[in-house]
Specification:
Length: 295
Amino acid sequence: HARQVENTTSKNTLSRIVDGKTEIWEVPRDIKEVADNVSPYQLGILSRIIAFPQRLLRAGATGLSAPFTTANYAKDQVSSAAMSENVKVTHQPKNVFNGLYQAAKDFGVGTDDPTWQKFLENLGDTTQYDFLRNQKSAKQFSRELRLGQGGRAINKGLHPIRTVEDLVQITEKATRFQNFKGTYEKALADGVPEAEALQKATLAAWQNSVDFSRMGSVGQVSNLLIPYFNAGIQGTRLLVRRTGEAPLATSSKIISFVGLPLAAATFYNMEDEGRKKVYDNISDFEKQNNIIIVL
């Protein structure tokens, strides 16, 4: 529901002038995007053509691969835990499972969870796929507003690649949401005003995981051509920044969450001659990017 506010602390606001005075109204995100009828990141025709093969690759060859998706989610959990300033609250099991539940429910029938709605209002659910495609058109939003779940189902059927992307990005949204939820609830429990708590939660959602919105004009073009180009750059940038801000804490978490499990897995694989032969035949690329346990 729309409500009048004093300032534009929320990104989902519309303005109008009444009797020479400006009124600011906070509205649901869907209404905001229909009113604007433009995405904050809008691809031209040429860019969409260039990005299409990469969208197919991400959605098909990698996204629909269960091992890839599972490994990617595990990596996202580990890296965001290492980057989190409040890992005890952002990565407690309750928030991890709630993140997966809310993200999956949002993909299916939508969720009215109050914290998830705040997450959406602050664009916390924007993922890497949103920088390779345009937002839904006004026609699609209108269909969903008019027809509800029926409209969502029609849009999913008419736009299969977007539907697959939305399915695949459940795990990315889940990780961002658990960081948002944990930070938000911790801030409120500490007596922080809600506006400041929302700001802290939004920063956690974006900065504990890879911030895909950070890229210049060269990065935008490169990201259209090279799969996961910006993800690699921003992941390194995030690690360097966090290490600079809290070197001891960040290093300790990296050792705990990455170094020790990797060392234990390697020792286990090399201890037995049979497992060692299998492990030696695995490519160095796989060893460098995954924790491998030979069964």
